[in-house]
Amino acid sequence: MPDQTSPYTGRFAPSPSGPLHFGSLVAALASFLDARKSGGRWLIRIDDIDPPREMPGAGDLILHTLEQHGLTWDGDVLWQSSRSEAYLAHLEELTQLGLIYPCSCTRQHIKAMGGIYNGQCRQGAENKAELALRLKLYDLPGSLTSLPHQVRFIDSIQGEQVQDLALEVGDAVVRRKDGLFGYQLAVVLDDLHQGVTHIVRGADLLPVTARQIRFFEILHKSIPAYSHVPVAAINGLKLSKQNHAPALNNADATINIWRALVFLRQNPPQELQRTSLTTLLTWAQTHWDKEVLKGAGQILPLTPS
């Protein structure tokens, strides 16, 4: 049982674009074990704010797979699709602060800028027909003028990280031209809503972390502690739904968890492959040590079983 007085709240937030695969299991397991080893809470959020990319029923399928693999969560599942009013209210507040502006730039425009949005529409969008909304991340007004272009943070696994928001990122889209809310807006507001203090996730999300940290700074909120575990890859390609990673077989839950522990360099004993899932997870919680991942890099090859 989680310690209700623990200052640790973690979360796993998959998008329902397909069933859970091994790469996702690695991220979920690392997040779960880090929370449980700390006596903290572990929450589940389904990031269902992009219907065109979602697979019908995938959210429920993911939840079922997590349960079958013994990764039980605390409290109710939060579905991002239920949070539209909250996102809209925050957008209005940010607009009043002079931090939101309409943008008509297309992907072709951004490609012509060298791939990094250069703030072209900060002085006014040319095309009024199709407009996205962007959040200023640098050169901010009012009390935020002291925030530098660079964001520096220490990732507990990947070490010190530095990103120049003006040169490497550009202002973030917080509402798309099709009216859907942007990921960077939703993820930060939901982490605040759920009281998330520690984020353990795949290193493929490391590049977006600085802009999320800047969002916390803009809102004058505490920044979570970040840990980005290596992502699994085959032939240099990250295991992902886009790369047709196979769905997990729930009948092999114990083996799947054991293999994920091996990938995470936890060195589970061979005999635990033949034990119960409960016994394996109990061992994993007791022995969880993310320090062994330091220096492992952001991508690790998946050794065939």
UniProtKB/TrEMBL annotation:
Q: Does the keyword Nucleotide-binding apply?
A: yes
What is the residue range of the motif 'KMSKS' region?
Answer: 238-242
| Cofactor note (record) | Binds 1 zinc ion per subunit.
Q: Which residues form a coiled coil?
A: none
EC number from the UniProt entry? 6.1.1.-
User: Which UniProt keywords are present, listed alphabetically?
Assistant: Aminoacyl-tRNA synthetase, ATP-binding, Ligase, Metal-binding, Nucleotide-binding, Protein biosynthesis, Zinc
Q: Which domain of life is it from?
A: Bacteria
Uppermost EC category: ligase
User: Which cofactor does this sequence's record say it needs?
Assistant: Zn(2+)
Binding-site positions, ATP: 241
One family name in Pfam for this protein: tRNA-synt_1c
Glutamyl/glutaminyl-tRNA synthetase class Ib catalytic domain sequence ranges: 11-244
Q: Which positions, given as ranges, span the membrane?
A: none
Q: Which residues are recorded as binding Zn(2+)?
A: 103, 105, 117, 121
Tagged with keyword Electron transport: no
'HIGH' region (motif): residue ranges = 14-24
Q: What are the recorded GO MF terms, alphabetically?
A: ligase activity
Instruction: Give me the residues that bind L-glutamate, please.
Output: 11-15, 47, 183, 201
Family that this chain belongs to: Belongs to the class-I aminoacyl-tRNA synthetase family. GluQ subfamily.
Q: Which PANTHER family match?
A: GLUTAMATE--TRNA LIGASE (PTHR43311), GLUTAMYL-Q TRNA(ASP) SYNTHETASE (PTHR43311:SF1)
Describe its function: Catalyzes the tRNA-independent activation of glutamate in presence of ATP and the subsequent transfer of glutamate onto a tRNA(Asp). Glutamate is transferred on the 2-amino-5-(4,5-dihydroxy-2-cyclopenten-1-yl) moiety of the queuosine in the wobble position of the QUC anticodon.
HAMAP family membership: Glu_Q_tRNA_synth
Q: What protein name applies here?
A: Glutamyl-Q tRNA(Asp) synthetase
Identify the species of origin: Gilvimarinus gilvus
Task: Tell me the name of the encoding gene.
Answer: gluQRS
